[in-house]
Amino acid sequence: MPDGGRLGFGAPRRAVSPYAERADPIDNAVDRIAERWLGWAEARWPLHRRRLARRAARIAALEPRYAALRSHQLVALAHTLARQTLRHTPGRDPLAHLLAVLAELLFRTLGKRPYPVQLMGAMALLEGRLVEMATGEGKTITGMPAALAAALRGEPVHVVTVNDYLAGRDGAEIAPLAERLGLSVGIVETEMDPAARAAAYACDLTYVSNANVTFDYLRDRVALGQARGPARARLASLIGGRAGAGLTLRGLGFAIVDEADSVFIDEARTPLILSSSGDEADAARLYNTGLRLARALRAGADFELDEMRRSVTLTEAGKERLAAEAAGLDGQWRVRLAREELVVQALSALHLFELGRDYIVDDGGVQIVDEYSGRVMPDRTWQGGLHQMIEAKEGVEVTGRKVTLASITYQRFFRRYVRLAGMTGTGMELAGEFRETYGLVTVRIPRHRPLRRRHVGSRFFQTAAGRWRAVAARVGQLAAQGRPVLIGTRSVEASEHLSRVLDEAGLAHRVLNARSDEAEADIVAAAGQRGAVTVATNVAGRGTDIALGEGVRELGGLHVILTEYHESSRIDRQLYGRAGRQGDPGTTEAIVSREDELFTRYTPRLLRLARAARMPLLDTLMRRTAQSRAEREHAITRREQVRLDKQLESSMAFAGQRE
Question: Which of 176, 207, 438, 494 lies at 20 to 30 Å from 477 by C-alpha?
Fold first, then answer.
């Protein structure tokens, strides 16, 4: 994140907090528009990339010098160079030498020497930029020298990724090199107790998921209460107790966010809410009554569904019918606004949220499935009684409604890091929003090797059943050739349905979804072997490197089949990116149905035309239009979320900051 205020002018303000973090920026509509256009223009300006390429070439030229040194000499030199980077010396470039030393140590410790393009990415990260690298180009290796260099300079470093699996994998991989340099590595997992979490954050480098670090920040805010500022914290310590005692984090120093488009964009549509369970007498009876009343209402006459915005609106006739149906009931049902709110949530649970797509039932409870990552989000619940309505709908124990303790959006949280950087495989189309919202300038890093992946086409079928039969037939052809196949689905339900279809066809396969993510490492390790067939939700869509088995390259590499387009074309490209990594061969194709939700929800008129005409050009137009509308809706939602967040913050200023 570039230093300075909006548009790069002025020094960043420090937040009123007992540990290091930035204050929220002060901006206006003109600033935001200018930032968006600057972000778009800078991302396409070639000078940043050319400058990084020249510096990477200088680093590569230093390789023979440092290859001749002993390892202990390299370690001592790394610490010396790290200190030198903290001060500006004309005519010297200690950062280039530091990265050259780290590259040599990385090779000696892990057997991997960073390519010049990866060194370009590492330098861009240290400059506080958003780095776009094509899928399969080695973002994990790119982030290592940047994280180590920052930690050697004494910055608290958080390497943030999208889930516990990737945080644990990447943290374990860098640990031997970090220990060699005298640096400690902490890994934060969801099920950790508070003491273990604090110990992980106390390390020089901390690997953590975006949800975990944000919720830990909110817990610190709740623990601080009114002793937010340094002066009040010192006063509290004088009265009794150590300043900052009981806090989990040690500050928001430098964050490197992997899969940044997922964290900054896809998951930024809703705020993160820290809550506790409230007491709610007769909760099961209340929500079951709501479901009974909702089932008595008629779609179109009593309520209207907006599937594109996933909202329900009661008509005037529906409100009157609800009042009549609720006559004689006591409690909240006597209050018009309360009963209408409850029934709207019941209608949403019945008509907008589906088992196997939006949630699963596991261990006797409803667990939300993240639509972007395909993973279960433990301890997350929907607000406003919706979660309880879904529990009642599925016949599991109904929990009490949650009481909000604190909340924050990802947009506000990540802007509070003193320094921020990110990596993604798909960032150019979002460059304006990255600059406007997070102050990050996007730079595209070239490929190390030419892309050998081929897209062999897209096929549209009238029905979902026809699509699944075609997928099974295609898998049979490829399996007979011995090629590994990865089949991507959008939901748990779809992956399990396809599994049954493949079973009926006698095709051996493995399934990776939210119900089986504990076996993720084993399934991913086998997915590139000869003849392997893997059915996966978006669990396998990001961050997974599928290594090809012996003889697979000669057969054409991994083949990826997309069975349903996502609302963002970026996520489709992430799935395709599992094939053809680092110059390997690979192929992709799409086998989809015109019945898919993307089309029925966003382009119903074009869908009717496409069903009648059955023209490939019309199918392509329908897909592009639907994804464009979906992405536009999501962008509006994100901007509205930030606006509401700021409004609420301003209206509650008299009571202190709300998180």
Answer: 494
Q: Is 436 annotated as a binding residue?
A: no
* pLDDT for 456: 94
pLDDT at res. 231: 53
**Residue 226, annotated ligand binder?**
no
β-partners of residue 511 are 535
The pLDDT of residue 9 is: 47
Report the alpha-carbon distance of residue 93 to residue 54 in Å, rounded.
Answer: 13
E strand or H helix at 58 = helix 47-61
Neighbours of 286 (CB within 10 A): 20
CA distance 220 to 211: 14
CA 354, distance to chain mean position in Å, is 22
| H or E segment to which residue 160 belongs | strand 157-161
Q: Is the pLDDT of residue 240 over 70?
A: no
What would the pLDDT profile of 320-369 be if each residue is shown by its tens digit? 999 999 988 888 898 999 999 999 999 999 999 989 888 889 888 898 88
Tell me how far apart the alpha carbons of residues 604 and 260 are, in angstroms, rounded to a whole number.
32
* 395 in a labelled binding site: no
- Of 34-38, 452-456, 542-546, which one has max mean pLDDT? 452-456
- For the chain, what percent of residues have pLDDT higher than 70? 89
pLDDT band at 275 (very low <50, low <70, confident <90, very high): confident
SS3 48: helix
Of all residues in the chain, what percent are helix, strand and coil, respectively (each to 5)? Answer: 50, 15, 35
- Known binder of ligand: residue 137? yes
Q: Residue 559 — pLDDT band, cuts 50, 70, 90?
A: very high
More confidently predicted of 501 and 370: 501
Distance of CA 409 to the CA centre of its chain: 13
* 140 labeled part of a ligand binding site: yes
pLDDT digits (tens, 9 = 90+) for 152-165: 999 999 999 988 88
Domains of the chain: 6-43+116-272+409-444 (3.40.50.300), 279-400 (3.90.1440.10), 453-593 (3.40.50.300)
Q: Residue type for 375, please?
A: R
SS3 state of residue 424 = strand
Provide the phi-psi class of 582: left if phi over 0, else alpha when psi is between -120 and 50, else beta.
Answer: left
Among the listed residues 438, 431, 430, 383, the one whose alpha carbon sits nearest the alpha carbon of residue 410: 438
Q: What is the pTM of this model?
A: 0.84
Number of residues assigned to the chain: 659
What lies within 8 Å, CB to CB, of 258 at 6+ separation is: 139, 140, 143, 159, 160, 161, 162, 166, 170, 422, 423, 543
Instruction: State the distance between the two ends of the chain, measured CA to CA, in whole angstroms.
Output: 23
- List the beta bridge partners of residue 7: none
DSSP designation for 382? -
CA atoms of 57 and 36, how far apart (whole Å): 32
CA separation for the pair 456, 464 (Å, rounded): 21
Contact 464/69 with Cβ under 8 angstroms? no
Alpha-carbon distance of 656 to 16, in angstroms, equals: 11
Q: Could you tell me the pLDDT band of residue 403, with boundaries at 50, 70 and 90?
A: confident
Q: Which long-range contacts (CB under 8 A, 24 or more apart) does 342-345 make?
A: 342/286, 342/287, 342/290, 342/385, 342/389, 343/290, 343/293, 343/294, 343/297, 343/314, 344/303, 344/312, 344/313, 344/314, 345/290, 345/384, 345/385, 345/386, 345/389
CA 582, CA 137: separation in Å to the nearest integer? 6
Pairing of strands 311-314, 185-187: unpaired
Reported confidence tier of residue 543, pLDDT bands at 50, 70, 90: low
Run of H or E including 273: strand 272-277
